[in-house]
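Worked example 2:
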Amino acid sequence: MQNKGLIRFFAIIFAIVCIYQLTYTFITNKVENDAEAYAERVVDADAPNSSTLIEEARKRYLDSVASKDVWGGYTTYAGAKDNELKKGLDLKGGINVILQISVRDLLIGMADGSTDGDFRNALDRADERVKDGQQSYYDYFIEEFNSIDGAQLASPDIFANQEMEGRIDFDMSNGDVEPVLREELQSYMVSAFDVLRKRIDKFGTTQPNIQQLGNTGRILIEMPGERDIKRVESLLVGTALLEFWHVYKAGEIAPYLVAADSYWADKIASEKGDVVTDSTAVEENVDSTEIQTPQNDTSLEDLLSDNEIDSEDSIYEIDDAQYDANPILSRVLAPGNGSGPIIATFRASDRQLIQGYLNDPQAKAKLDPSQRYAMFIWGRPELNDELGYELIDLYAVRSNAQGEAPLSGGVITNAKQDYDINGKVIVSMSMNSEGAKIWEEMTTEAFQNQTQVAVVLDSTVYSAPGINDGPIAGGNSQISGDFSVAEAEDLATVLKAGKLPARAEIIQKEIIGPSLGQEAINSGLWSFAIALLLVLVWMFFYYGRAGLYADVALLVNILFIFGALASFGAVLTLPGIAGIVLTIGISVDANVLIFERIREELAKGKSQADSIKDGFNNALSSILDANITTFLTAAILYIFGTGPIQGFATTLMIGILTSLFTAIFITRLFIDGYGKNGKSLAFTTSFTKTWFTNINIDFLKKRKTAYTISGVLLLASVISLATLQLNFGIDFTGGRKYTIRFDQDMNATEVTSILSDPSVFGSAEAKTYGAENQLAISTKYGIDGEDSEVSADIESKLYNSLREFLPADLTQEQFADVSVEDKDYGIMSNFQVGPTIADDILTGSLYAIFGSLIVVFLYILIRFRRWQFSLGAVAAVFHDVIIVLGIFSATYKILPFNMEIDQAFIAAILTVIGYSLNDTVVVFDRIREFIAEKTNWDFGRTVNGAISSTISRTLNTSLTTLIVLLAIFIFGGESIRGFMFALIIGVVVGTYSSVFIATPIMYDSLRKTKDRPRKAIPEKEVE
């Protein structure tokens, strides 16, 4: 081998760079362990909210050392964190979401809120079509709009408006308007991306990942290690619609609450056929004149004092009869002060009910005419520790017929978290000149009338301060509202980053708690260590000292892989660990190919030096062809996959490149170095010296038997797929999936029955997930509903339905909180996929499979110059994939682990394709070589001889790969067990098909042609 010095130099430099890069990971782990120890030391473990306090203490510690030198000035913690090996969600916990920016909202905004019938009709039709279609929302909208006779996009009632002035004119055709709208939409998408990126940057999460997914209006956001999940969700989907409203005093609106209560009491009594009693009494106690002309000093507490309802009573002491008699007042937990902005305090869970009562058109008719446009808005829910549930305040703001606020947040130029003179947390903000003028007018009016101005963000009142010191000029003011520092920082971040140009909806979400992430790390490391040890032992056992050199090269390869991942900023995931372990098999395969060729040359009587030289040269073609086909499938997997699947593909591609380098060059350095002084290297041991030698099997003679066996397996697979079908996961169907841990062994069938009750979800499925006390529960309940509301509803139903199986002292909040460190019971993770993106994922997966087949077909066609080779390889791949699918179809109801068809399974299928092609290409490469060398052999003898000569390599590689996969399958954790099972089946079937399907089909199709090989097929030189 030439240029040994240069190769040695690059290997050493690469190793040093990898070690240097990995030191950052060592440093961050040490600092974070110190932070955990500090937090546990300063926080009382018996405190009611100890987990929250520990997390806050941990963050304080890390914040305090972020900019300090560590390791003797080597770096800072913040610097090390930026350069460490990034761990994915499944190893670290955190949140991963895909947001869909509403194109409908954007179009309505561009049309200046147009209510044109044609426009709205086209939007509604696009809403329906996009649910099951593959095109973008905009494309469907344009198709539907153009299908309406006479509909013009440039109508002054639609897009030829002030909003689009200068870009769309009245005389433009629909064809002229379409590209303008598309370009404008794209600019809005960029704006949305920037807003979200600014919010996340200000949030403080380390190593966030945010990227636009093409031109779909979808944005992927990954925040590994983030534990404050609710805070993240609210920050991501909040539109940041900031408004300032004049507020009614409680005394002005209190009579309406009583009147509305009386109206609903009568209505409920009428519907039930009861005699009106309590509500009538209430109505009699409130003079109708007072209701029509409320007095500013009227207090709800005064109005309630004449009723039979005691506002101090526990809500649990009020029976249904009292609720019916006073549906609103009976739910008041605390009345507001007559001159204050808070009308009353309710239980947060009653919010929707009370909102419906108050906004009923017939009930609102009882408002004073001057109040007919009043809007009822709620404050922020706050947990009352004594009561054990959340309370929420009700406000009423002065609106107009259009429901427009006097001042909106678009005028905000800056905002920051601050403190007032009393040390209270506030948000300071400043406005532009237009906003400052309106703000001065509003504060002047509020000061003169001694009323309040409500600061409303996304329909939630953050504060309603009185203006006691006169009008506020200049546009600089403060928002106070009993904030924590984190809440004030979030509010300031949202205000400063700006509002999203349209509603953002979570269409895919994965949340993994830190406990489950730590378990995944442990299981992943165990599987990795065991697989590595078994392979190292096997290589030494089979090849002796040469195997030991291969082991050293393998360890160097692993160092290179982890170093490359850290250097490129790639994310290590649990499937990524599987990819690394699978790379071990690929690396071993390259060494096996080389060693087997060297043994062949030694058997011919060549000197050791010549055998090593020729062995490496002869193996190079097979190694390159095999690894290129696998690399192509991994690349396609990376292009079409998302999240952990991309992690798997990334590590696989890096592993293939480093494996080539270490197998071809590092191993060669050791072997040449050992033999340069004339030392003998046998490339075998006394036990394995005669294994797989002098094999001469007529494989082609057995091809009809193989065709029969494969035909039976294929037929059985097709029948199973047609009858039993496949168990599609929510990746492809849409829905929600929760991993829940109990304090007792669970019966999955019983839980399925409980949750499938019409009063719960109507349809659900529970499966044992790993241990007997852990279930994976899937449901499509509320899949089309608003994410936060549906998620809260599902968590409540899960808790209440399964409460008997949970610890008695486990609250619903503890049950649902996935962010708790060392969590023992409750929801450990949840995964959500909307129906629209599920359909897209399925389509993308099919593209990935067929795309890989096409690419590989073309590569083999170019490489071997005959389509018959491509036909044999692709036929074998189809054979392998259908059998794997058939086995999954036939056994998913029987086997005790997850066998869903999801994105991970697609990754497994593509890996099976790559492995099968790897095996097939090695055989084909030897056939091509034999055709060139054995010119006096007939074609059949050539094919048989080539297969026989590679059987040692085929079995050796298959055995080591199976050892690796079995180790991961047994020790690698429940989340990838189905993935590993598919790979194990694929390796077995792929090994069989490369010999008994791909090669015979190539032989049968080629021998019947006029140009079947009789003479050498010239081999294309390796470039």
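The first strand starts at residue 69 and ends at 70. Confidence is low (pLDDT under 50) at residues 275-297, 306-318, 1015-1023.
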